[in-house]
Design brief:
The protein folds into 2 domains: 44 residues, Arc Repressor Mutant, subunit A (Orthogonal Bundle); 131 residues, Tetracycline Repressor, domain 2. The chain contains 8 helices and 2 strands, in the order αααααββααα. A hairpin with a 2-residue loop joins strand 1 and strand 2. This is HTH tetR-type domain-containing protein.
Length: 199
């Protein structure tokens, strides 16, 4: 079956993300993905300028999976601290369920470039999960009268959850129960709020 146009581009991305999920980013080649899609090895180059362009598209798709994963189970009626806790738990679940995606987004060569300007943290690309996390951290600060610059508060909490997910996300190294994970994240949020509230 020959796939054409934008459908081929989507299929190339989807098949590539499947390879990343099961084998890791280092096993990606445009030739292999073209073969899986049933097209010539030159067909992907009609949609991507080069392999790096293709890998960037894969990272974008993986970012979307991450964004929807950490938003799972969050409702509009939840308190900001409860949303932050749920995001943290979802983040750890993402590290457990998608270890190769986690590696790509947080440990690999494809991490989006971020910068600080006027005490605001921003990325060169739209990163769904990160943007949601930033907005919740800002809401937690507002709801709890926290006086700290946005860039510092986001980096502090983001660093904690990425590091924590890295530690407990490796089930073959660390064996912990979900109640303990929830307790640690919850305690970190409480410590953060109490330690940074205006007097």
């Amino acid at each position: 079956m020959v796939v054409e146009g934008s459908k081929l581009k989507e299929k190339l991305i989807m098949e590539g993300t499947k390879i990343v999920q099961t084998e890791g980013m280092k096993h990606i080649s445009l030739r292999r993905v073209a073969e899986i899609c049933g097209v010539t090895h030159s067909s992907p180059y009609r949609h991507f300028a080069n392999k790096n362009d293709y890998l960037k598209a894969l990272v974008g798709q993986i970012s979307i999976v991450f964004g929807s994963s950490i938003a799972k189970g969050i409702t509009g009626d939840m308190k900001s601290e409860d949303i932050l806790l749920k995001m943290g738990l979802n983040f750890v679940d993402f590290a457990n369920n998608f270890p190769n995606y986690f590696d790509v987004l947080f440990l690999g060569d494809y991490i989006a470039h971020t910068k600080v300007k006027n005490n605001k943290l921003s990325a060169d690309e739209y990163l769904p999960g990160f943007e949601e996390f930033k907005s919740i951290v800002q809401k937690v600060s507002s709801d709890n009268n926290i006086s700290i610059e946005e860039d510092i508060e986001v980096v502090q909490l983001w660093s904690f959850i990425v590091g924590f997910a890295l530690i407990v996300g490796k089930k073959d190294v660390v064996d912990v129960k979900s109640d303990w994970i929830k307790k640690v994240i919850s305690q970190m949020i409480k410590t953060y709020i109490v330690g940074n509230q205006k007097e």
